[in-house]
## 1
Amino acid sequence: MAADPLGGRIAVVGASLAGLRAAEALREKGFAGELTLIGDEPHAPYDRPPLSKQVLLGRARAHEVTLPRVREVDARWRLGVRAEGVDPIGKRVLLADGGRVPYDRLLIATGTRARPWPVPGQAALDGVLTLRTSDDAAALVERLDAGPRRVLVIGAGFTGSEIASACRERGLAVTVAERGPAPLVGALGGVLGAFAGTVQRSHGVDLRCGVTVTALTGRGGRLTGAEFSDGTRIGAEVAVVCLGALRNTEWLAASGLAAGPRGVACDAGCRAFDMYGIVTDDVFVAGDVARFPHPLFEYQMLSLEHWGNAVAQAGVAAHNMVSPGPARRPHLTVPAFWSAQFGLNIKSVGVPTFSDRIVIAQGSPEEGRLVAVYGYRGRITAAVSVNRAKSLEHYLRLIESGAPFPPGPGAADGRGPRPSVPSDVPDPRLLSHGPTVALTGHLPDRGLTLLRQD
């Protein structure tokens, strides 16, 4: 680290939400040195959640959902150029255009990208799309505006379900294919997954669970339909591939850092680990690409694809980059996210997948308004509300205090005790999409095998 923590050179690789908020926080905390932001997209930082919501419904244009600036960052921007590596000895970021960006401290905030359809020839068919960037959203809106006879959504995680919702709101026929047993099951478990499936079908979605798309078919280079593992076929002019995200870590392969498909491992203070598990003091990580331990969840290494986590973690990383050791602080924010789909406002606090039991503490699936509380080993670990978000603040406090599961009478709606049931969190390998919260250690209901060498 530079002798003066408020001086020197800081490079931020990743010019999206986490990178921008970290840069702003660095200036806010008095960093007066040279600041460089590097991003592979040519666009200024923009907001991604509206892309699958307001943008698809025509309420905003894809290239207008910019991120508001909290303050000026007085930075050198290197947009539209990809980082290809890090020289940890010479302390330089290596760029695809041959450029070199020196640093005293480095923040890695490269996020994720959409997982593509795995068959290149089929992925290249006109009409096969993904949704991650503003350019992706603009291309998808153009296709939906053209009024396709049917849209195929491959994967029923949050992004896939929000796209299906937008299609139905537009009056378009939509088929959703999900390898797992229900929509959203990878994030919320079986109870709310079954509820989500009922909601989608009630809105006219042709929902097909427990099946996979075995082939995308085309004619003359254009998508014409799809074949399924159960032997059925459909015709479709548009297919949106929602198979989860890939963390952008390949560029770090020769960096000596603990970087891989699950993200860049770091400590609770956002300091990156090297490949031997030794914490670095000049390389930090924030946002979707980070993989970090959380004491509220038995120090599971979490990888989160959440807006709020990116903002909070960026703030912690920036603080620790310019603070001496005793003044550094950990990233302990409880994960939270939200989704709007099929007339439902779904909000979550905690980690629903870190659970073995669930209880509907308020409302019911039949009412379409509820709060589900999750527990693991007798402790509350998460709560999810459906059209009942005001209750979540109470459950957030219970999670932070390690309150016992099931929750006491003060957390229920007065209908008397309700039985808990298994949360039915599936093995991620059974899904066609990735969870938005990845437990990158072992899942709580599965043993950890240790291989020993004599």
## 2
Amino acid sequence: MKNNNSSLSRRAVIKSSVFGILAASIPSISYANYLVDYKEPNKNLPSRYPSIDDEIVNEVVGKSHFDFERVKTLVDKRPELARATWDWSFGDWESAIGAASHVGRRDIVNYLISKGARPTMFTFAMLGNFNVVKAMIESNEGIQKTQGPHGISLLQHAKAGLRMKDKMSNEAILNSEKLIDYLTSLGNADGEVYEKFNEDEMPKYLGDYKYGDGEKDGFSVKINMRKMLALGKLGEFGGGLYPIGDNKFLYNGISSVYITFQVKNDVVESLTIHEPELTLIAKKV
């Protein structure tokens, strides 16, 4: 009896093993269908999937400048977007909380922090947190000269903190004013000092510049909200141009990228982008 059971057990093991091998080697119909689907490109997935869609990241950073309700709609659904960061061009990186900070949107900043955003020195400056900013400066000599997104200085962030003054407590207002006085007293917390630019000269630079045959192969030079020349993708607004010489500008204060304009008889004919490993010429159209 014992031998029969052993024999039966061995046959059962062999049988189950054979069917196990067959099951593993012959896909089911549903699995075969999945393989077929896998070979077809999924047009619904973002180009950099599993990274979050660039359009969504761009939107949440852009809307963090002014649209609280849209930011809430996006971030409530995906709280990780509270930490979203976008490169506006040439390495002008800006986070969602950085965007809200330099325009003084305390409401958006506080909401993003509640969802996991990482506040920076510029955020604390906008919020008027005197003790935090002062401690950071005293422990990191010269850090007050660091520029924020778009080349906006620490002092300008502190001043932006009073844009919602009508909704601030007296204590908050006093803290912001105290911080502004302190940063002003340092003498170097308002960013780089650039050459003066004659606003009457602006019109000659304005327009579109093409560097290829593609629909988007070009730049547009416009005047932005800060009354500066700005360089953006064709048809769009972009970063400010900071004058550093005759017809020579830094892009949003980024030290490694500068733009020169080629002028003949006081007429601008082209512009040249100078990057560390690239030089690109675009002709005015």
